[in-house]
Every structure is written in C-alpha cells, then in structure tokens.
Amino acid sequence: MSAIRLTEPNRRNTVALTAITGGMLAKLTGRDARKSRAGIAVLILFGLGAIQILQLVLNSFVAAGAYQLVDLKNQKRELTVTQQILGEQVDSLSSNQNLANAAQKMGMISNANPVFLRLADKKVFGKPKAALNADNRISRNLIKSAVLTVTSDLTAANATAADATESTVQPTAPITLSPVTSSVSTEALAGATSGKAGTSVSVGAKPTVGAITLSGATPKTSAPTSTNQIPAQPTR
Amino acid sequence: MSLFRDRFFTPGDSRKRMVWFKGGILLIVAIFTIRLVDFQIVSADRINAESLNKRSSSRVLPAMRGTIFDNSGQVLAKSVLKYNVIADPANVRAFKKVNADGSKVEISKEQAAALLAAVLKMDPIEVQNKITGTNRYSMVAKRVDASVYEEVKKLDIPWIGFESLASRVYPNGAVAGALLGWINQEGVASAGVEREMDECLAGVDGKEKFEAGRDGIRIPTSAIVTRTAKNGRDVVLTINRDLQYYAQQVVTAQTNTLRADWGTAIVIEVKTGKILAAAEAPTMDPNVYGEATEAERHARVFETAFEPGSVIKMVTAATLVDQGLATPSTRIVAPYGMDLPNSGGYRVTDSHQHGNDKLTLTGVLRDSSNTGIMRLGVKAPLETRYSYLQKFGLGAKTGVGFPGESAGVLPKLDTWDGIKKYVSMFGQGIAQTPLQTAMMYQAVANGGVRLHPTLVEGCKDESGKLVPIATKPGVTVLSPQSARTTIDMLEKVVEQGGIGKTAAVPGYRVGGKTGTAQITDPATGHYGNLHAISFIGMAPAEAPQYVVAVTFFKSRTKSNSIGATPAFKAIMEQVLRTYRVPPSTTKSANIPTEW
Question: Which CATH fold would you assign to the domain B60-234?
Fold first, then answer.
C-alpha cells in the first residue's frame, strides 16, 4: 500500500501558470483571444508531454545505470576474491615453512658452523666445517602451519640445478680471503627465510670495510652469477 | 412504504431528483475527500513509513581488522573474507547447467550433493543430509577459503548461497603463534597481541540502507542511509619474523632432543629493550587455535614464572660489586656442601663433588658454586639484596603490556626464613618469567639501566604513519662501572666455564651465565628430579648489543645447562649474522678465578 502525497512544487507550478495565462488573457479579446488560448493550451500540453517523455528517458537511463552499478560491484567483488586467493598463495609461498621445505627438497643444508670473514684485515673467525656435519643442524622445517596451502613447485628449479651440475666445478681449494664478488651462501637457509635474516649475499668488488660475510671449506669458484640461479649442489 | 415513495420519488418531480442526486454526489465526494485527507495528511507518515519499510533493504558493511606486521614489514596477521556455504533445502531440486559449449545438462540433487562434497572435501552423505528438508536455511560448510568459495560458485547450483564474513589469517602458521594470540569465532580478540592491541586493530562495521525492487536491485534515486565501515589500523611489532622462525626452529629441535616439557628463547636489543624474538615450543598455530592444548595457548615467555636457579647468581654478584662489598677478585673458599644456620639442618651442596675450592667471585660464577655465592652474598645486608632484586625487576610486571603477564614471585621480606635468606642468592624461593630474567641481563648489558621491554613498536594512524607506543624511562640498577665489571665476570663463565665454553661464539666475546634450577613437585611439595635449564648471555661483550635467553623446562636427557648452551649459541650466531655485528677485536679483562 502506498500513497502519493501532494507536494508543494506542484501547487506552486499551478499558481505560476495561472498568473502567466491570466495576465495574457486579460489583454486579449474576441477571436484572437480564442486563438491565443488554443495555442497556449497546445503549447502547454506539448511542453508537458515533452517533459514526461524526457523524464521517462532519464528514468530509463538511471535504471540501466543501477543495473550497471550492480554488475560493476559484482565484478569488484569477484576481483577482490581473486586478489585474496592470489594473496594467500603468495603468503603461503613466501612463508618460512615453505622456503625451508623447498630448500630441503633441493638438497640445501644450513651450516651450523659458519665461518666469518672480516674483509678489513682478511681475518677468518671460526673453524670451517662441512655442512654435512650433523651437530646442531636443523634442516627441516619444524614449525607447523595450517595455511601452507600452496608450496613451491620445484620441477623447474631442479631442472636448472641439474643443468648447473654439469657445468659447475667443485674445487676443494682453501678458503678464499679476497673480497667476495658474488657469493650466494646457503647459510641463508639457516633462517630458511627471506629478507635479511640469515642471508649472506655480497655483490661488488668494493665491499664495505668491516662487512661480514660467510665463508666455508669448499667455496664454489663457479658460483652462479645469475641472481635467480640455484646453486648446483649444496656445499655448506 | 407508499408514503416514502410518494415523498421522495414523486414521478415527474425532476427538481427534487436533481437535489437528491447532487446530494448523493456531494456525499460521495465528501467521503473520498475525507479518505484523501486521511491518506495524504493524517496517516501519510505512517503509510509512507510502512511502504518504505517494505521496499527498503539493509546490510552490514563489515570492517576489516588491521594487519599485524613484524619490524621489517612482513605480515604476521591479516584479515580476509571467508565464506559460509548455505543451502535452501525447501527449494532443493534438479537443475539444468549450461556447459562451456552451450549444451545443457540436468544435474540431479544427488549429483549436486556429490559435486559439493568433492569441492568442500566432505562426505557426500553428510552433504545430502544438510540439503534435505523443508527449512529455508541450512549451513553446509563454515568458513571456507576464497578458493573453495570460487569453486563452489562455479558449480552454479541455484539453491546454494554464501555468507561472507571477516576472518583472521596468520600466514606464517605457528611462527610467533602464542605471541600473536587469536580471534575467536565471535570475532573477539582472545589473547596475545590481538588482545593487547585490540583498540587499534578493531574496526567499526558500517551499514547501508536503500530501497530495492523485487529483484533486489536498488531503486535509482532512492534514499540511502550509509554508515561507512571504519577499518581497523595496523600494528607493527618489534619482532623480526625470520629471527623468530629461526629461534623457534632451534627451540623446537632442542626441546625434542631434551624431551623437555617446553622451551623458550628470547632475543632482546640491549639499547632499546625491543624484543626481537620470543620463541617457544611447543606452541600453537593461531589459524587452528582450537587444536592447541591449554598450555600451548599461553605465551610462557611472558606468563610462566618459575624458580630461575643459578642465573640469579649474576644479580647477587652485581649487588656485591655495586655496593663495594666485593670485587671480581675477592677470594673465598667454597666447600662442596654447607649447612645453613637457623634452618633446622638444611644443607646446600654444589651440583658436582669437589673439595674446598679456592675461588674468586669470578670463579664462583664460572663454577656456579652455590656455597661460594652464599659465603660471599652474606656480606650484603638482606634488605640490600632484596632491594636489588626489586630494582632488577623481580616481583613486578616488566611493563611490556602483554595480556596475562606474570609479575613473578618475590615474597615479602618479613616472610623470609633462614633458608630463603640463603637460597635466594642462587635463585630458589623466588620465581620469575623468562622475560624478567632476560631483562635483568639487559640491565647489566645496558650500563646498569634496565629498560622496559617493548613488543609493539606502535599503531599506525589513518594516514598510515606509525605512532610509537610510549615507553616508561629505564630504571638505574647498577653504576656503569659495576655493570662493566659484572660483564667482565660473565665473560669468564664463557671463556673458562666447563659448560659455559659450549656457549662461545667464534669471533665474538660473549658473557653469560648458566642456570640449572630444581623444580618443585606439586604432589610432594619438594624438589623433584627434573630441572629447568637455562643459559642467558650477551654479545659482543665489549659493547653488548643483544641478549639471548634460552630455557628448557623439565629436561629429561640433560640435567644441567649443557642442554641449553647449544640453543643459545645457535641463536646468538644467527642474531649476530642477521644484524651484521662485526667480530670482536679486543680481549677480555684479566681477572683471576682461583687463588
């Protein structure tokens, strides 16, 4: 049940129309007056009709706009869902647990016996030991996560590693004390994480004085130069 | 009757008929006018309101809770939308589905149930039961992920709908699990940082009200009453996610090795009091907090107080030095055992058999001699030692603001009997949390000023700018000289101590103290056979930057702190690597430990 209430603007329009037509009629007489009245009436009717049609057209556009708005809102919702799904996948892939598991699957081992190299005086701190030493070594992830829904696909990575194995020489040379030009240490996986923790990446021929980098017993002389390459074999 | 007819319907009297006709018309017009006035004026508001109510539709605009970040911007907790999958059992029937090639195929109720079950990883019979009945609402699956929601939606089942609801996700699982806390099913922050910072993190739901047609589409130009949803603000912690993960890995592994009840590890930045890692094992994954045990839900680092044992000998030694009652070289003869005066024959022994050892105060710390520390400790008046314990933070909350934090136990001085006056010198008769112990060592490492630890950096404002949490000023516990001397003594523990040596980090000067505390068996009221083993240390000792404190409670495979030092060493090494701390270039002070 609905009701339409008389509104103030309609009453005002009626009064205004009367004022206009009344004023004009007062000046006309006879046949001219009748002609003018008929003309004005037609004009008014035409005007009202035009207004109605215009309103109808406008309403149609507005109504169509409302449906378009709903469509766009639905699209936005779907995109938000997609964004959320992708975000969750990224979170899962970049989680500590996935990185640790991926590192383990690739055969990388964190070295529990890191050796420190002070570039300022080329002094080595600590006794180098092979990463295979099991003392204090934690190479597998121990921290559970219920949202580890997507894990690293290592198919491509393993293929790259296999290629690298064929062209990589594994020397048994002593520790190199010269400034490290490009060393990607698997010690990064001591934290098995991204960011600063556990990483030891030093690039460039002019390292900062006093900077610390990790060294090991069997450094690679043909360490991958591509930043995305994966070391052929775990060495420390 | 004829009189009536004659009077009112006289044939041929058209004037009268006209009068009656006009009267009737007027009456009808009057009735319509009255009703019109009633509709348009008298009842207009009510009718309009009823009409609006029928057309109007409203919905809640859920506010998203703020994100919790670590100190490097990694997400530790965030809000996402999850979905309840609901059915309309009264309308469940076979339906036609349009294939990708445009062909139509009819899906029966049973087939639809099987499809749903496969996507939702549920039993088809269970799904069948949930979609059968005469109800208009049935919950098929609760809180499914967005990916599952998408898959269910693709099935295009007409009698399946969804309810979206904000949910909390912890992308790193159990990393800092108990620390972060969780949000329960009702959306209430129940523990941890979630509860501590709820005022900042929580948002305010909005509301939208509009007029809609039968198809639910909003009527253009209809009035909308909207209260915009106000999302929660973000919180930044002092925790370093990667360091936290590493510490948690180490503590978990060592707890398993020792078959201990639990283990904890804390990393404190000395100059700021920031907690960089607060790890423990076993702990909870807040994503599935319902699966955690009651013990796992608590952050023991903040909430669990226990007798600390020998790590307190550092406090006793520092008190003596600060009061000028002893120096690192002060000599004492430490026997294997000692009967305490006024104790009814209570005897205290050292952990290992030995004769009368000629030790200095530094040597007492190195060997962790109970008898030695008691013989030296009695030089300080009881009230003085008590006040130092208070200044070191015992018996009061640290000020970190963590919900459920324990103040530890420091019994009133007038209740101390003959035994407690002595055993308190090596950490019995008092209780403290792992964090309180760590902050005692932070005080020494920080030149004698104990800071209030911070776990939360701050809360971001609406513009995304971090508003730091206000912290109280530090408490001066020792003079800088006394603090330095205490560190020098602690270095000898790591340099020369039988167990302390295993905590050494190659390339760095490290100071620390072992702790092997007996644990009271609640059943007997006496100390049992299991111990709480700890090692608390700082590095680099020449200018300490970090304090690491590890504890394992009820260790079963190692009965002294030899079980704790490997974890300390591993974590301290990782801390020094993470923050690029240059190796030490100086040597420790030359202090005699024996005479």
Answer: Penicillin-binding protein 2a (Domain 2) (3.90.1310)
Of B40, B75, B285, the CB nearest to A3: B40
Closest-CA distance of chain A to residue B322, Å = 35
Q: What ipTM goes with this model? A: 0.79
> Could you tell me which CATH class the domain B241-578 is placed in?
alpha beta
Say which residue, B53 or A159, is predicted with more confidence. Answer: B53
**Residues of chain B found within 8 Å of residue A122, distances taken between Cβ atoms:** none
User: B146 and A81: CB-CB below 8 Å?
Assistant: yes
The pairing of beta strand A212-215 with beta strand B75-87? unpaired
User: Is A126–B50 a contact, with Cβ atoms under 8 angstroms apart?
Assistant: no
pLDDT in tens, A162-178: 565 555 444 333 333 33
Closest-CA distance of chain A to residue B155, Å: 15
Please indicate whether, in this complex, the C-beta atoms of B246 and A193 are within 8 angstroms of each other: yes
Where do the DSSP E strands lie in B401-545?
449-450, 456-460, 466-468, 475-476, 511-520, 527-539
Contact call for residues B508 and B573 (beta carbons, < 8 A): no
Tell if the CB–CB gap between A191 and B573 is shorter than 8 Å.
no
B80 touches chain A (CB under 8 A): yes
Query: Which residues on chain B are in Cβ contact (under 8 Å) with A136?
Result: 566, 569-570
Distance to chain A for B485, nearest Cα, Å: 26
Whose CA is closest to B165, among B59, B86, B84, B57? B84
Predicted confidence (pLDDT) at residue B29 exceeds the cutoff of 50:
yes
pLDDT average, residue stretch B349-364: 94
Report the pLDDT value the prediction gives residue B321, as an integer from 0 to 100: 97
Which residue(s) pair with B59 in the sheet? B208
Looking at per-residue confidence, does B577 or B222 come out higher? B577
Q: What is the pLDDT of residue B274?
A: 97
> Is A213:B576 a contact under the CB 8 Å cutoff?
no
Which chain A residue has the Cα nearest residue B171?
A: A91
Write the Ramachandran bin of B447: left for phi over 0, alpha for psi from -120 to 50, otherwise beta. left
Q: Is B360:B328 a contact under the CB 8 Å cutoff?
A: yes
The amino acid sitting at A2 is S
Looking at chain B, the domain(s) classified CATH 3.90.1310.10 span 60-234
Asked if A88's CB is within 8 angstroms of B147's CB, the reply is: yes
Interhelix angle B313-322/B480-496, nearest 10 degrees? 140
- Subunit contact B507:A125, Cβ cutoff 8 A: yes
Query: What's the rounded Cα separation, in Å, for the pair B592 and B328?
Result: 8
Where do you find CATH 3.40.710.10 in chain B?
241-578
Tell me, yes or no, if B575 comes closer than 8 A to chain A by beta carbon: no
Compute the Cα dihedral for B530, B363, B509, B425 and give only its sign: positive
Judging by DSSP bridges, how do beta strands B68-69 and B235-237 pair with one another?
Answer: parallel
Q: CB contact, 8 Å: A163 with chain B?
A: no
- Contact yes or no for B578 and A197 at CB 8 A: yes
Once rounded to an integer, what is the mean pLDDT over residues B53-62?
A: 78
Four-CA torsion B201, B202, B207, B208, nearest 10 degrees: 20
Q: How many residues does chain A have?
A: 236
How far is it, in rounded angstroms, from Cα B394 to Cα B390?
Answer: 5
Contacts of B429 (CB under 8 A, 6+ apart): B307, B411, B416, B419, B420, B423
Please tell me the predicted confidence (pLDDT) of residue B187. 85
